[in-house]
Design goal:
single chain, about 140 residues, three-stranded antiparallel beta sheet
């Protein structure tokens, strides 16, 4: 169950403010087992058009940090909207989620089944975040 969006107002490359974060409650039947939250990375005011996003997923006592990726392979320029997310745990990158055109997940091979499940949910939730963003434009 997801709602919200992480959009601010952009005036000629200067972003001001931010709306509510994009949040997802993760349910197993009627039981709440986790949460995903994504929000603008910047403070109240930032320069530039790149929409940097950060957040987290917590599920089954596992927590990962999510940070937007704006670099498309082979390109020297950054995209305005995220092309995916870097996933970290305790400062170490454990996976990459790509949401640019198609959805894919790359992760370290030595993760447990529970860790992989959390990453799969993070992939779906982060890929769906563009819908909240599109609704606010």
């Amino acid at each position: 169950m997801c709602s919200g969006g992480y959009t601010g107002v952009n005036f000629g490359g200067i972003s001001v403010g931010s709306s509510d974060p994009y949040t997802c409650q993760i349910l197993d039947g009627k039981n709440n087992v986790g949460k995903v939250e994504l929000r603008d990375k910047s403070g109240a005011i930032k320069l530039g058009t790149t929409k940097e996003v950060e957040g987290f997923i917590e599920m089954n006592n596992i927590r990962y940090q999510l940070t937007s990726d704006h670099q498309i392979e082979g390109s020297f320029m950054k995209t305005d909207n995220p092309s995916g997310f870097h996933v970290s745990q305790d400062g170490k990158r454990v996976a990459a989620i790509y949401t640019n055109g198609s959805i894919s997940l790359q992760m370290l091979p030595n993760l447990t089944a529970n860790q992989k499940d959390v990453l799969a949910v993070a992939t779906i939730a982060s890929a769906m975040s563009w819908r909240a963003d599109a609704d606010n434009e």
